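FIELD: query
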Amino acid sequence: MEKLLISAETILPISSEPLKDSALVIAGGKIEDIGNAPALRKKYKGVKERSLGNGTLLPGFINAHAHLELGWIKKRIGNFKGFTSWLQQIIRAKKEGVTNQEIEESVANGIKAQIESGVTTVGEISSYNGLDIPILKKSGLRTVLFREVVDSKEGMMDFDTFETSDIYEERLFPHAPYSCSPELLKKTYNSHKKSNRPLGIHLAESKEEIKFVNRKANSIENKIFPLIDKKSFKRKKANTPFGYLNKLGFFDQSKVTTVHMVQVESDEVKQIQNFGIGIILCPRSNLFLQVGVPPLKEYSKLERVGVGTDGLSSNYNLDFFEELRFLHLLYSAALGKEASYETIYTATLGGARALFLEDKIGSLEIGKDADLIFLNSKNDSNNPYLSVVSSTNENLELLMVRGKILYSQKTISSNN
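FIELD: result
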């Protein structure tokens, strides 16, 4: 892969202040240099240049939590009231059955939606025996494939073998505290300690989950378990879902990415920080399922916080630009003028840190992989972060993963 110099009016490294009239040099899929455009042209004379002009060059978005497989289920969901009512519909729809073709088409359509909305990395939950894997590998997207673990499939799970490449890796994802017994959670934790691969888990999403870990009467056991022929299991009593996993030692010297984290108490945030836990916000999904809003003001003080669209089972679409604008509104209420930077941080470096990938992606720095996008946003804002928040897929002009262009609207010229 030959060297390429990319220049733009504005560059947002995320890890440092915005740069004007600057450029970066890509070689071997990585960022080799970054700085003043005229100086880099002189230093790398003869290297091909892509002059992007007016707009913003920044790290590619990280959709840190998605269920691309579940696109098919959207048309089967009717009206519901609350989390449990929604989950009942999901279970019934799955029982009705789905073809491999429907799942594969859902994944392919989901990938298209990711690329068209500036996503270069997706954290995919895989639960249909790997039907999504070949499609994701072929797409060129950077993929963290979380293999979903639940009690009913324990005997079929591989806890020891994980595939990995430059832009693809597999991890385990115990579904949730109510769908995984303490013994299964311990098994996934032991696998993590052996392989050193981070884990993921849905956590603290609904108030029913709080009742479940409190061992109080709850609709998960009373309504959901009978639907899937699941029996209740013995478990330690805890006040919160986070406290439940903490009692099990799930966070001890481990790398865990937690998804949703709506039902979290303020005094737990410090513990989350001390453990170095990753958090993935799913703002539209949370409102869609009527479970509330996470403590964003407290989370804004943490480094490992990312964002995901979740799946079409609990969202209107997989448009990441729309997810960011919605998150920005929530951050605005919690943070005021810091909302625009925090939104873009959460979509890039925060997401990389939440997935424990910050050594590779999330910011434009020398030595990191060249995962980036360019937005030709033309608006009157003098705040480049707000300019990104205001963008739509119509503004996307370039998308690159590890130096490979997956989406492009302009040609490359020679830098003489």
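FIELD: remark
The two ends are 19 Å apart (CA to CA).
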